[in-house]
Amino acid sequence: MNMSNRKLNVFLPLLLAVVLALGMFLGHKMPGSGNNGATVFFTKPARGPLQEVMDLIKAKYVDTLNTDKLQQEAIEGLLSKLDPHSIYITPEELQRVNEDMDGNFEGIGVEFNITNDTVNVVSVLSGGPSETAGVQTGDKIIQVNDSLVAGNSITAEKIRRLLRGPAGSVVNTKILRQQKMITIPIKRGVIPLYSVDAAYMATPTVGYIKISRFSATTYDEFMKAMRKLTQAGMKELIIDLRQNPGGYLDAAVRVADELLDENKLIVYTKGKDFPRTDYKTKRPGLFERGPLAILTDEGSASASEILAGAIQDWDRGTIIGRRTFGKGLVQEQYDLDNGGALRLTVARYYVPSGRSIQKPYGKGHDDYNEDIMERLHHGELVNKDSIRINDTIPYKTAAGRRVYGGGGITPDFFIPFDTARFTPTLTAIYTRNTFSNFVYQYYTNNRAKFSAYKTVGDFVKDFQLSNEVMNEFKVFAKKDSVPGLDHLTPKDESEIRNRLKAVMARQLFRTEGFYETINQEDPMVKKALEVVTEEAKKEQ
Q1: How many domains does the chain have?
Q2: Which positions fall inside the PDZ domain (predicted)?
């Protein structure tokens, strides 16, 4: 045995004794030892009061409770004390929310309406699963797999759940077509949800693009639309963001990058635990030069306001319409173990001038949610001088234009809301969905009359709504208990005729047909055409 081994044998018993003593000391100090001394190295995971209460209710409460519902209400109660855009998304809602943002869903590719407890196929997606299987516009869906859906108090949500499912799976449908029952198996597929609803040439040189939301596919759709319009001779552009609730920040940034030249700040985000992040233009855009107008209203929010704000701050274009919603908060979505999600506000975003466009929410969610109605009652929607500005930062653009923050993007040209459109007669027609129901019936009974119209332009130019059709509509609407049809004002009659023609165009050419037709009489679009045309003359 060498010297080192002898020394180890001498000190080994002492080393073991020290380790044993230390272990006894730590064990004495750990939770559950009965000693009130401070815990060393280890801490007991602390349950918050909320979790303690939930656990006690589960274990001790006198009656059986739906604890999932109770937890949901507790979460919503907690979030109600935060900003209005931090929300809990239930597992049932999450799929629909994600589909809207992803830009697609898995289903059979039909659009339907429900009248008299009957599911009517209004249109069939070109190249989609239903068209491949032989489904036609005008078919009535009677049964889906083993579920009878006709005359069964079916709702739109129920029929969607029955028809949607994993791509590649088969849904068996029984369909009534011209009084004959047929069985059609349909292999489900991936169905696109488009966010660019229309892209057409409003004049030989002015292009129009309608963006309904900013989803994962918006930029690609926008670029496709831009290339089409550029090839058609576009020199001026109108982008319609009315009633666009926003969506992905990245989608709005990428669209803005196509309209602004290089190395310009588009937006930046910043929060308490969220360091400032700048989003700048990175590449040459398709439309960095040329007259540009952006249409906004009180329904334009979030990503829509980012795009409009950047265009306004850099004097790149003209904002036309009404003050936007005023949402300048950034949310991140966190998946939860129960299959739901928490969408939590983590930062604010600021447009290039440094202005936050988030409107105040300190008076609570109810006050915040009533803001649009308050604007109407206050007169802001009909009178520019009634706009209430909560200015967060004084700023003038390089061109000397004063811009405002703290409550949305204020337009350069104000277009009032037409309150005269909502007479008792028109309100009843809209709330009862009478336009769509009548047009569906009229189209299915008169298909041959519409076969001559090969393009939206042909339809807009050549189709005239006859007095005979107008009288048929009145008879149909009276069955819906619509009042005042025998004493229409000239304005009401004009509105009905324009809307019927637009809904017919939608039946033929989907959303692009609707917007190209309805925009013929739209005051905002008319003003935008006037503005970009004048700008084009100045540049010549």
Answers
A1: 4
A2: 94-170
Range with lowest mean pLDDT among 234-238, 265-269, 370-374? 370-374
Q: Contact 149/143 with Cβ under 8 angstroms?
A: yes
Tens of pLDDT, residues 229-241: 999 999 999 999 9
List the catalytic residue out of 123, 195, 300, 302.
302
Show which of 177, 192, 207 is a domain's final residue.
Answer: 192
| DSSP letter string, 121-168 | EEEE-TTSHHHHHT--TT-EEEEETTEE-TTS---HHHHHHHH---TT
CA distances from 404 to 324, 373, 375, 401 (A): 11, 21, 17, 10
481 carries an active-site annotation: no
DSSP conformational letter for 247: B
Residue 65 in any domain: the answer is no
Which helix H or strand E contains 427, and what residues bound it? helix 424-431
Query: What's the rounded mean pLDDT across residues 72-84?
Result: 90
Query: Does the active-site annotation cover 313?
Result: yes
In this predicted structure, what is the pLDDT of residue 173? 95
Spot the catalytic one: 140, 210, 327, 527: 327
Following DSSP, what letter does each residue of 26-41 receive, concatenated? Answer: HHHHSTTSS--SPP-S
The verdict on whether 302 is a catalytic residue reads: yes
Residue 72 lies in a domain: no
Largest separation between any pair of C-alpha atoms in the chain: 119
**For strand 206-211 and strand 318-321, is the pairing parallel, antiparallel, or unpaired?**
unpaired
Q: Among 85-89, 310-314, 377-381, 424-428, which stretch is predicted with the lowest mean pLDDT?
A: 377-381
Let me know: does 503 contact 511? Beta carbons within 8 Å.
no
Do residues 220 and 345 share a domain? yes
- The answer to whether residues 143 and 238 belong to one domain is no
